[in-house]
């Protein structure tokens, strides 16, 4: 894989993730760049596949879920995050309504 020299702003998060998985607190810049490149390539790949599905020129959550359906870890994690996102939206809505009526 070719390591890109152009940063996408993911380096800080990747550094934290690497540290969380047992790497050094300050991992090699080349390691971060390599992982960033892999992540960006995966996102490009999945996005290109998703854009060719369903509605022309539009990517939906269902398209992404369909593409990752055979990878149970990714699929289950995506579903878990979607449920959490819905729960957060509902909680915010309740909080906003409570503030509105006071």
The succession of helices and strands, N to C, reads: HHHH
Specify the helix fraction band: 55-70%
Main β-sheet description: none
Mean pLDDT: 88
Instruction: List low-confidence stretches.
Output: none
Structural class: mainly alpha
Distance between the termini: 57 Å
Shape: extended
Strand residue content: under 5%
Radius of gyration: 18 Å
Layout of helices and strands:
Blueprint: H1 11-20, H2 29-51, H3 61-67, H4 72-100
Q: Your description of this structure?
A:
This protein has 102 residues and is an all-alpha fold. It is built from 4 helices and no strands. The longest helix has 29 residues, at 72-100.
Summarize the structure.
The protein is mostly helical. Helix content is about 70%, strand content about 0%.
Q: Any descriptors?
A:
mainly alpha, 102 residues
